[in-house]
Amino acid sequence: MSYIVATEKLTKAYGSRLVVQDLDLRIPEGCVYGFLGPNGSGKSTTMKMLLSLIRPTAGEAHIMGRPMNRETRRELLPRIGSLIESPPGYAHLSGAENMRITQRLLGISNEQVEFAVRTVRMENQMNKKVREFSLGMKQRLGIAMALARQPKLLILDEPSQDPGGIRDWCLKPIEVGLAA
C-alpha cells in the first residue's frame, strides 16, 4: 500500500514538556484523515512537523514516500497545499486580488484559480474586501489558496469555522478533480 503520509516515532518536546510522543501514523493515498483531540493535544504541532515548519525532537515523517526535512522540503512543499493557524489574505484587498497574488507567487493558471474558488463555492464573494468576510469565508479563501496549485496532499488545521461550507464541498474529494 502506498502512503501519502507516514511517521515513525514522531516526537516533539519543548523543554521538559512533551507535546507529541512516538506518533506512528500511516495515511494511504486518496484518504481523508482527521485529528481529533482537545486544545494542546499536539494536533497543530504534528501538522507543522509534517510540513517541516518545526523540527521533530525525535522520529521522522515521510511525505509521498520521501523523508520530510530541510533537504527535501523544497521538492515536497510545491506538491502540498496547507492552511495552518489563521487564514491568510490581505484584509484591504478583495478575495480576487488575494487569489491573483497567490496565482503569481505559485505560477499557476487562471483555470487553477477558478477551479479552487469554485471548489470552495466562493465565486460570488470574490469582489468583496477580505475584511468584510466572515471567519468562515476567510477560511474558505485560505482553502482556495491551498487548493489552487492542485496539490497531491492537502493539510488543513481547524478548517471547521464554516461547518456548513465544509460539509458542502469537503465530503466530495474525488469529484473536485485534483491532479494526481
Q: Give the strand line-up of the largest sheet.
A: 2-1-3-4
Q: What do we call the CATH homologous superfamily of the largest domain?
A: P-loop containing nucleotide triphosphate hydrolases
Identify low-pLDDT runs: 171-180
The CATH architecture assignment of the largest domain turns out to be 3-Layer(aba) Sandwich
List the domain count as a whole number.
Answer: 2
Shape: globular
User: Which CATH class of the largest domain?
Assistant: Alpha Beta
Terminal residue distance: 16 Å
> Helical region count?
6
Query: What is the chains' assembly state?
Result: single chain
- Strand tally, please? 6
Q: Which strand-content bin applies to the residues?
A: 15-25%
Report the mean per-residue pLDDT as an integer. Answer: 87
Helix content: 25-40%
The secondary structure category is: alpha+beta
Rg result? 17 Å
Q: How do the SSEs run, as a string of H and E?
A: EEHEEHEHHHEH
CATH topology annotation of the largest domain: Rossmann fold
- Biggest beta-sheet profile: 4 strands, antiparallel
